[in-house]
């Protein structure tokens, strides 16, 4: 092939051809141009366009001669400016150089030649000494025998060898050095395999295409897993996931492309490892080797074994993790050539949640019923439960899931909280128990107490203990003894009580469980009321008429009257009921108050007199007064004295002497008065009693207004035309005019009404203001002139200025002065001198400029009046890019094999290469494009980074080597080491060095020497180790390259557990029976036992497994705890004994104590010791029927006939017991006693009777000591504590023997006797038939016994006198003394 370039040179130059030869086809496809330079100033020329050369072939080149032949000059010519070669091949680059044969009279000789790609300061680094090319570079000629030609040979090309290579020679002359610049750019690349699947019906049928950026023509061969399988640029085959595929140029099989292959079996890991707690962040990571790079997809296995899509990417992040996230996760790795998957399981632990408390039975809780509270919580591990009542740990039930109330009491009401707890957290739930019971302790009070005055506030309050809250109903007794429903609620409030409110009020307290009532009476007194004032005659009061005021009031006692006018005592009429005006005057108008008063209060009433009269004293005023200026605020005010208030009407006189109605009201307001408002204004004042009027005049002055500016001619203003501005304004006096432009007084035209521009200029554009002014004001108006003109002063700038680096941000800005605003359009000159429209707008922005953006840019500025343009050029330089690293051979790397890493990068100028491993410069290979491992080791695994760098930037690429090897250094450890205690957390960890990551399988040796598969994973975790976990554990470590195993043994010790306490016999425990408590516990070593009762070590039984009660007593009730203990721990269990027994120690008290007055209220209360709780029944002596049930018996309005002996009976399921008698003595009132004593007649008779009574009491005392044992009520089952009485009631006790009865005539008055007893501590005292409250304790106490006497009376024959007649009462004082 020969290319002849014809040209001619002037003067001494010789005509001749320039010849470029290429004997072998190489990748030199390009456009070639010839350029020559003469000795003339402009004697330079380039042949453009040049010659386009298209080349196909492989690697060998011949030189292209671009210099003129046959002349002495310095020069160097390369074979080609760009060379492309495959990695691993050999390339030759030749240079023909020339120099003057003679210089300064001396022959020229070449002393040194070298090839280089980089400089070290001012020194050129010879490739032969460059470590990156060590043992790979040779020169074909090194001395003068080269005859002007040198060839560079580079063997075993690497991707990092891509660079610009230059030739340099040095002669014997001082300045005789020359470098061929620019040099030759070498690009080293790999073949690439492109994969496509042409037919969807055959998903594994693939078309493989071998591709090279060098444009190699082939022929190509195809390699499958190391075996040649075909020829040609493309290859079709059914893909098998285990195989890999690569291509190579035939004859260069040692330089194959990186293989493509399906994903290898992936490895799945979890971080953090170990136990996973709910709420933590968990990351699942999946990795696999694949080319092309694989896509990662995550799935979760559902409970029905179906899969649910989770995420795309190598990591699946669960944060914060939930308990529902537990399960099996699959990682699917997929590229065009196949799919692989692997799985991992997650077990999430969590603290208690969804804690709830329920009650059984549900619904309303009634006192005495059985109630169970149950607590539940979802937790892993299972929760322990603790009960609290009102924020305090509740009794001995605090570790059970249920809290049982066998017989609930009102005191059990409250809020119960159940706390569920495990090592991961605590949750609680609460429930409230509201025990329902009927009303009790009902009472009524009045506030204030004492006398009630009418008009005061009185509140009757009713209280009662009940649940659910009782309904309160108030009734008032009517005069016909019927009741009237008054109110609902706990209080009956009289905010202002009236005399009619006197009476008896009853409060009825009721809920669904019962009804109780209580009453109170109110007596109201009142002061004056219904006070009123009247006027005569009634109706309207006119000035001059006669008027009388009269005052009346209902009061007891009668009220006195005082008159006030406007809060002041009125004249000398203040004590009379009437106030008379003979001739009323307007000054008598006002408020008159009459005050009615007595000692119980004061009431008043008032009336107003409004004296009516017609308008008078009418006048009109102006504000402000004086001269009126237009725009000011003016108010005309009209005033007149009139009653009733007058109506005000304003009129304005028109020019034709007619009047115009202006306004209604006392004022006529001009907010912003106008000149048209000048004139006379009349105010007319009128009411039904007359009319008056007054007038005023207004004269308005005003400053300039309606100021305006116009332009002539109107419309658009173009530069160079004539324009006139005119100003006008309405003003009185006439205004003067001043012109302003842009807020500045404009030239000498400022006092004229017109502003004239003969030839308007663009600088005349602006806002013009005309100011019209007189002494009363100033007004202005403005107009704008917008002079239109075409673009001018167009320019283009670049930011930043200077050199442009690829990747930087560059902004081209175009500016031009134009009106209207111009449109900006950017063009770029193409190589064929055409222009390409780039952008609209003042700026052309390159956010990230590229080398292809170099060129000339034109900005065209245009509006309707013209067009202008300006241009600028951009020259872009760029640093390294498209940096990549490849590995050979591709695919899996096994320990011991040979591996080569190659780096390549596109850069101008050529890049230098540095290798890093895990961010550290790697050994002495760091300046070479290849990194070779002759025998790779597992320690060579890691990330390798190749850094390509020139003065314009740095780019890097990385690749990871994952050296695969079978398991080694396998071992098993236990944490904690040493002895293992049950309940502790134990982790067996298996470690082994392996790649790919090994699968770990745990086995436990069974007692029959077989092995049981325990777990998958590096750790075998016993979160809460059990004794059954003792044994030998084997860890098997396995990957596709081998298997190893190691073992360890666990011996678990444990403290007491499953501790329990039982009772024998089971069921209810009755007082006096035999009971045995037994404690058991599983422990190693065996446990010792200690018994506690109510948190205290119990007697000498504390080291035995059984606690025996031969004869259980009520005092033995309580909580018993058995503690089982060895050196490894302590466990306890508890049981409660509830000893059941019948009522005992039954007693009665009275409130109030002592004597009871007729008409008062008495409450008897009964108490006893019993389990279960006793029920109470009330009896009265000599009456067979029950009179009341319940612990309390209340008599609200006691009468003498209700006096007598009362007792209560306490009973439960075990037995019953009666109390002693309590005697109620109802006394007469003081007035009744006085009447009785008056009938005796004289003091002498009274003394005689007293003497007889003393004798009588002495005799009765003797008899009482003998007969007391015969006088008692019936006894039920158990003996009752016996009261001691001074009994003198033989005649009133029908059950007494006849021998104890005395003649009636001897019992006619009241007497008192003191009786003293002493008895031993445990003595049973006989029960008497009559008497008062009896105490069985040992303290001294004064007791009263009632002695009743029959007054002689006429008794029918055959009737016992003890059954008839009236009774007198005698009180006897009884004192008890304990025996010491």
Automatic annotation (TrEMBL):
<protein>
    <submittedName>
        <fullName>Hemicentin-1</fullName>
    </submittedName>
</protein>
<dbReference type="InterPro" id="IPR013783">
    <property type="entry name" value="Ig-like_fold"/>
</dbReference>
<feature type="region of interest" description="Disordered">
    <location>
        <begin position="1357"/>
        <end position="1380"/>
    </location>
</feature>
<feature type="domain" description="Ig-like">
    <location>
        <begin position="528"/>
        <end position="608"/>
    </location>
</feature>
<keyword id="KW-1133">Transmembrane helix</keyword>
<feature type="domain" description="Ig-like">
    <location>
        <begin position="967"/>
        <end position="1049"/>
    </location>
</feature>
<feature type="domain" description="Ig-like">
    <location>
        <begin position="615"/>
        <end position="697"/>
    </location>
</feature>
<dbReference type="InterPro" id="IPR036179">
    <property type="entry name" value="Ig-like_dom_sf"/>
</dbReference>
<dbReference type="Pfam" id="PF13895">
    <property type="entry name" value="Ig_2"/>
</dbReference>
<feature type="domain" description="Ig-like">
    <location>
        <begin position="1056"/>
        <end position="1136"/>
    </location>
</feature>
<feature type="domain" description="Ig-like">
    <location>
        <begin position="266"/>
        <end position="345"/>
    </location>
</feature>
<feature type="domain" description="Ig-like">
    <location>
        <begin position="791"/>
        <end position="873"/>
    </location>
</feature>
<dbReference type="InterPro" id="IPR003598">
    <property type="entry name" value="Ig_sub2"/>
</dbReference>
<feature type="domain" description="Ig-like">
    <location>
        <begin position="704"/>
        <end position="784"/>
    </location>
</feature>
<dbReference type="InterPro" id="IPR007110">
    <property type="entry name" value="Ig-like_dom"/>
</dbReference>
<feature type="domain" description="Ig-like">
    <location>
        <begin position="880"/>
        <end position="960"/>
    </location>
</feature>
<dbReference type="Pfam" id="PF13927">
    <property type="entry name" value="Ig_3"/>
</dbReference>
<feature type="transmembrane region" description="Helical">
    <location>
        <begin position="1237"/>
        <end position="1259"/>
    </location>
</feature>
<keyword id="KW-0812">Transmembrane</keyword>
<feature type="domain" description="Ig-like">
    <location>
        <begin position="1143"/>
        <end position="1227"/>
    </location>
</feature>
<keyword id="KW-0472">Membrane</keyword>
<feature type="domain" description="Ig-like">
    <location>
        <begin position="439"/>
        <end position="521"/>
    </location>
</feature>
<feature type="domain" description="Ig-like">
    <location>
        <begin position="352"/>
        <end position="432"/>
    </location>
</feature>
<dbReference type="InterPro" id="IPR003599">
    <property type="entry name" value="Ig_sub"/>
</dbReference>
